[in-house]
Design a protein that fits this description.
Two copies of one chain form a homodimer. By secondary structure, chain A is an alpha/beta fold. In chain A, 32% of the residues lie in helices and 19% in strands. In chain A, the strands form two sheets. In chain A, strands 9-8-10-1-11-12-2-13 form an eight-stranded mixed beta sheet, sandwiched between helices. In chain A, strands 3, 4, 5, 6 and 7 form a five-stranded antiparallel beta sheet that branches.
Chain lengths: 400, 400
């Protein structure tokens, strides 16, 4: 009942609209004047929404667990983040719009640099330009492997994706990325007998890739990571009867949204572009996932002021969102990325809900400490979608 | 994932140190000036930690459930307190350092007094001295039973333990303690066919014990309670990769810690002795369970002032703990024992967490009411260990 897998029979369709605005890595730790970035930022619009709405704290996976973007997002989308284990390869492939099919195995490619002994000297090949990446992917796409179709596609910078398509492929294969320099890539190893065929193909692919890239510089080799099959998930349409749009700049987030059956909308690179897309698409969907990346990027860089600035930029855009009159608005993050910690952390994430049927609580601002005392309490991220359905009258009365 | 059974693969070892300070039965009810013992006690050091850290309330087993020490402690240690059912016999045996083996069945012995008709007149034989207990155990240890080895060991006062070792023993056998006086002990009954052999041995043991004790006074008989097999639990090392030390005065708590694979440290009988042991052992372990018994004892005696005093004694010792610079410090109880109620109760227990990566909340003192509004909210005791692992960076990021 409280997750995407089981809610289907209890959902009715209506015209009401939900907006889920995700500031990636929103939660923080006090680092300036005893305040977190969200507390420090000037956010008159978010504070007004908090005063008028209800706030709380969400826990993406569980107490003490710092989540990756995948589990954190699938929890926001209402799926169990522990059983919903989606490999990075599948995320990357769907993220660039590749039409991954049942039976495919996808893996992420990192172009890298190796020395004459085959030891990795740069795991990212100096972060080569996406244009060079595309050219190299064409070279690798020419590789032919017996009995399977092969697709090699650029993602961004030094990241690409490979998809193996053919009968009998499973994805229990270890990464070749040694996560270190001065050592050679790991050999390709299947961890389950059913994945031996995939491992064999990956070995052949790597051998030919080494041959085709050996005269390139700095991207003279590749590493493979996150072998993954096509995920099997009920879509937003199946689970919630929602026509869902995703507005995101970065490929991974588009990929996660596509796996959930969302329509990936064209947008620009700035926060304001994303809101313009929301306005433009307003009449065509009833669920909008809007993803703001830079709160997380600045958090990971340890740039407290940068994170504060992005939050203030988003705050200034809020009136354009509320002007659309969403029936339920969620503002939160997928996880915490405190600038002080410079990484994803386990700290619960402030969440704000607003709409005509939200019962206002006593909170009058949006921040970690204000959310502690909010009416929503501390709860799993995966319950948010149920709250959204309830507040938009999309859930039938349970029992007579 | 969120319990000791599943966390293993997600844990990494590092140098960071965790202290779990348990004041047994800490939670209370208002009984003086409208305050609980914890609220009434002068605790400047704990209050400062609460101001600097984050607080909440923990629930040992579930709403409304007053737990015994066993489930309450196993929950603190991160094990599911409902599925982790460890019999009192096994606790008692491991508590005195007996090397319980797989296949053994242990039961607690209470020396008691019976009249000429065999009716129990004192279930504790006037709480005989431990020295007499030891002498009587030697007598009982001389009993020989066909096909099994028998071990009888004193615990404390009128409490001892018996261990049956041999093939084909199971532990589904009822207590003989009638929990009342003026009635004879219950007969030994197996509740499962597989435990018939154990019941038969216990009957033979009781018959011979009656014979050997009949001239003793007041301990002229024994009652058997809590038949239990060797428990099967992942140890702290297996579950958390933690080298764990237990600092406790009473045998049962040592027993529970030993079952979890903790190293039981020699210590004195006073609270200050326990902190001295913590200081002495600081470099040799990365997890310290420190158990303070008297908060519970005074609670059970209905001695509010006594409980207040113990809390104040512990408060004065806190600077010695924080001087060690633990990376994560937990101060809480295993359950509530309100002096007003004179027994273990179901009321949630105040919990304080403190350390460099704790996000401070708005609480400025440590007490039941202050903890209500804390950032940690109300949560199961069994989640504490996950929080400890997270805050000491011992959990790998979950998912990419």
């Amino acid at each position: 009942m409280i997750s995407a897998e089981f809610v289907g029979p209890h959902v009715v369709e209506n015209e009401k609209k939900i907006v889920m605005l995700i500031m990636d890595g929103l939660g923080g730790l006090p680092a300036k004047d005893g305040k977190t970035a969200l507390e420090y930022a000037k956010t008159p619009n978010l504070d007004a929404l908090a005063a008028d709405g209800a706030v709380g704290l969400i826990q993406p996976v569980g107490p003490g667990v710092a989540p990756g973007s995948g589990p954190a997002h699938f929890a926001l989308f209402g799926y169990d983040p522990i059983t919903t284990d989606i490999g990075r390869g599948a995320l990357a492939a769907t993220g660039i719009g590749f039409d991954l099919k049942q039976g495919d195995v996808a893996a992420r490619i990192n172009f890298c640099t190796v020395d004459e002994n085959g030891a990795v000297t740069d795991r990212r090949a100096g972060r080569i330009a996406t244009e060079l990446n595309a050219k190299l992917c064409e070279k690798l796409g020419g590789i032919s492997l017996e009995g399977v179709e092969l697709f090699v596609r650029p993602v961004k910078d030094h990241r690409a994706v490979v998809v193996f398509r053919g009968p009998g492929l499973e994805a229990e294969v270890c990464d070749t990325d040694p996560q270190d320099i001065g050592v050679p890539p790991h050999p390709v190893t299947a961890t389950e007998p059913g994945s031996e065929r995939t491992a064999e193909l990956a070995r052949a692919f790597l051998a030919q890739a080494a041959e085709r890239l050996k005269t390139e510089h700095p991207a003279n080799m590749i590493l493979l990571r996150g072998f993954a099959p096509h995920p099997v998930l009920p879509s937003f349409e199946q689970a919630y009867k929602l026509k869902a749009a995703a507005i995101a700049v970065y490929p991974d987030y588009k990929g996660m949204a596509r796996i959930c059956g969302m329509d990936i909308r064209e947008t620009g690179t700035e926060e304001a572009d994303e809101i313009a897309t929301l306005e433009k698409d307003w009449n065509d969907f009833d669920f909008f996932y809007v993803h703001i990346k830079k709160t997380d990027s600045y958090g990971e860089d340890g740039n407290f002021d940068g994170k504060v600035h992005v939050i203030e930029v988003v705050d200034e855009l809020m009136p354009r969102i509320t002007a659309l009159k969403p029936d339920f608005l969620i503002v939160t993050g997928d996880h915490s990325t405190p600038a002080l910690y410079k990484a994803h952390s386990w700290h619960p994430v402030p969440v704000l809900t607003w709409g005509p049927w939200v019962r206002p609580d006593t909170a009058t601002s949006f921040g970690e400490r204000a959310c502690e005392a909010g009416a929503l309490g501390l709860f799993p991220s995966s319950e948010l979608m149920m709250m959204a359905l309830g507040h938009t009258q999309k859930l039938v009365k349970y029992g007579a």
